[in-house]
Structures
1.
Amino acid sequence: QRLKAAVHYTVGCLCQEVEEDKDVQFSKQSIAAISEITFRQCVSVGKIVKWCFLILCRHAKRTTVNTEDVKLLARRSNSLLRYITQKSEELASSNMEQKEKKKKKSSAAKGERTPGEQEAAVTENEDSNMA
């Protein structure tokens, strides 16, 4: 129900934009009809995508859908494929940064120094020895 309400709200906003741009009016009934058609179409496409993923995973003898599966299904739409690739790379980069932060925190908690901190300490020792 919440998803259906979100679709209805979004369709209403889009209709409002069209009304402003094209100087036309949408009745509440027409907005409701467009919302219902949109929702049903999304459900239908969702079921198709679900089956495609199941078939891909079975074919690959896996139970997990991965990024490459999603890219494979999106390959016919260049803009969608670019968008998915970009988001995938952003997520991978973000995950790597989080892993690095966790590694630094666990090293600091254990009293260990990161390679950069070790290098700075060696340089500091060399500077104090020269003085």
Note: The chain has five helices and no strands.
2.
Amino acid sequence: SHVMSEYGRMTDTERDQIDQDAQVFMRTCADAIHLLRTEAHKGVQSAQVKEHRTAVLDFIEDYLKRVCKLYSEQRAIRVKRVIDKKRL
């Protein structure tokens, strides 16, 4: 109980740092997917391989978009709580 109360709360600075790191990470992932998409078809002759790689990259990109959406929703909740707290 004592340990949880001492370490269970993050400071606003820690939350801001996590937000900043998360945004950098999501941007890095999006850039990596884009780069991989451009490299995926170089030298490939088979239409089936191209189609497979495109489908895999589409799936990965969709997953990243869903993660980003979830992150944005959670961040919006945190911002709303901060605003509500300031109003009180």
Note: The chain has one domain: 12-87.
3.
Amino acid sequence: MARVFVYGTLKKGQPNYKYMINTAKGLAKFQGRGRTVEKYPLVIAGKYNIPYMLNIPGTGHHVAGEIYSVDDQMLQFLDEFEGCPDMYQRTLMRIEVVEWEGKGGTGEVRAAAEGVLECFVYSTATYPPEWVGLPYYDSYDSSGKHGLSYVLRESR
């Protein structure tokens, strides 16, 4: 199992969460909530109002999200879903555990108790330069105050 940190439309209550609970795509087990140890710019960009974490460590905010354990099938699905490696790149990032529900081996429990885990995160280093000038968010909600409604894939 691999650990994945999601910060956008794949979180609970967001438009693409349905994929995280679709066992036909693989297994994803919610482990807890966290935030990036380093600051990153989280922007909402493009004509479909997609959330992107720009891979610019040290700029922006500690981005909030959810930690999942996923099997190889789900990881492969997420790579395809996220357009990896063209649109997003899957990289390891340090995630601070805010609230832990995960149950697992002693190594997992110990890592959670220490408060920091390494998780795969879909961020991007391939973005138009003007995105750096967009507003930065510390948390994403598709129906947030930003007024930038996410456009579902089936509606594009």
Note: Residues 2-140 form a domain with the Hypothetical upf0131 protein ytfp fold (CATH 3.10.490.10).
